[in-house]
Design brief:
With 235 residues, this protein is of the alpha+beta class. It contains four helices and ten strands. Strands 1-2 form a two-stranded antiparallel ribbon. A two-stranded antiparallel sheet has the order 3-4. Strands 5-6 form a two-stranded antiparallel sheet. Strand 7 and strand 8 form a beta hairpin. Helix 1 packs across helix 3. The radius of gyration is 18 Å and the shape is globular.
């Protein structure tokens, strides 16, 4: 049986966004999530929302777009009236971060997506599409698999650097060929260090964003087992 990878609208957006890359990405100042830049964008978003009767300065995305990349900030709506220019580390100004909003219904909060992660996802999806099907390797849970990267032309297993722990994170895939970042090691560390009131069946992925400027973009849902350790919440 062959698997055909159909690229969703959110991936097409990812391709367009990262395909041209970031001309100034090598500059050190464009790779750091400065708190003052986040605060200035947060202030601008709040002022815009207050003056526009609750409307948020965001770009329109398909309803099926994953929540952590669903509400990118549209700097053209807040620059220069509410903000002099997009932050230097933003994609719009040559940086490697996409500024997004979470909790848009209750408490719109500015966070960051590291676009280097998006670029790695894009590269991997292109290789899977070229082959026509995802080369599954090991089964981690129901509908959660690792990939045989050698069959995709990799000499070494690819990875991304976690924006939370700075450790290497691997890729996982579901039965439909959708690629995700595996945040299970990050979740394990947070659950080990912090008290929480999660119940089995709760999606715990949001815990990573609580005390971080970043969001766990391109993640599948996770829950806990009877030992309060993270497990994949298979679909």
């Amino acid at each position: 049986m062959k698997f055909y990878v159909i690229l969703p609208l959110s991936f097409i957006f990812l391709f367009l966004l990262t395909g041209c890359m970031y001309p100034n990405e090598k500059k050190a100042e464009n790779q750091i999530p400065y708190e003052d830049q986040l605060a200035s964008v947060q202030k601008a978003v709040h002022q815009f929302q207050e003056e526009k009767d609750g409307i948020l300065p965001i770009k329109t995305r398909d309803q099926d777009t994953p929540k952590y990349i669903k509400y990118p900030i549209d700097f053209s709506k807040i620059v220069p009236e509410y903000l002099s220019s997009p932050p230097g580390n933003s994609f719009e100004n040559g940086g490697i971060f996409q500024y997004i909003l979470i909790d848009v219904e209750t408490n719109p909060t500015v966070k960051l997506v590291d676009l280097r992660i998006a670029e790695k996802i894009r590269e991997l999806k292109i290789r899977i599409q070229s082959q026509g099907y995802p080369p599954f390797k090991d089964t981690l849970a129901n509908n959660v698999y690792t990939l045989d990267f050698s069959k995709l032309g990799y000499k070494e297993e690819p990875y991304v650097t976690s924006p939370f722990s700075h450790q290497n994170l691997s890729f996982i895939v579901d039965g439909q060929g959708e690629v995700y970042i595996d945040y299970i090691s990050d979740l394990y560390q947070v659950l080990k260090e912090e008290k929480n009131s999660f119940q089995q069946g709760d999606n715990i992925i949001d815990i990573l964003a609580e005390d971080s400027p970043f969001v766990p973009a391109y993640s599948m849902p996770y829950t806990i087992d009877e030992n309060n350790e993270p497990i994949y919440m298979s679909k």
